[in-house]
């Protein structure tokens, strides 16, 4: 949602979803983002 130049509102940030996902990722060591998971898996398999 855009509120003006440089100001925006994120319902995920407001509810703490982002913080919770970050906390889970740090504890498990598995990224929550799709690209992060692909990168981690690729490194584990020796790709690139």
Instruction: Tell me the number of strands.
Output: 2
Task: Supply the number of structural domains.
Answer: 1
Estimate the mean pLDDT confidence: 87
Fraction of residues in helix: 55-70%
Span of the ends, CA to CA = 38 Å
Q: Characterize the main sheet.
A: 2 strands, antiparallel
Rg result: 15 Å
Low-confidence stretches: none
Explain what you see.
- It is a single chain.
- The protein has a two-stranded antiparallel ribbon.
- It has one domain (8-44).
- It starts with a strand and ends with a helix.
- It has helices at residues 11-15, 17-28, 34-44, and strands at 2-4, 7-8.
- By secondary structure, the protein is mainly alpha-helical.
- The mean pLDDT is 87.
- The protein has 3 helices and 2 strands.
- Helices cover 58% and strands 10% of the residues.
- The longest helix is centred in the middle third of the chain and has 12 residues, at 17-28.
């Amino acid at each position: 949602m855009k509120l003006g130049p440089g100001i925006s509102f994120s319902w995920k940030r407001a509810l703490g979803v982002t913080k919770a996902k970050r906390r889970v990722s740090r504890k498990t060591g598995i990224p929550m983002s799709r690209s992060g998971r692909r990168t981690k898996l690729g490194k584990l398999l020796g790709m690139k």
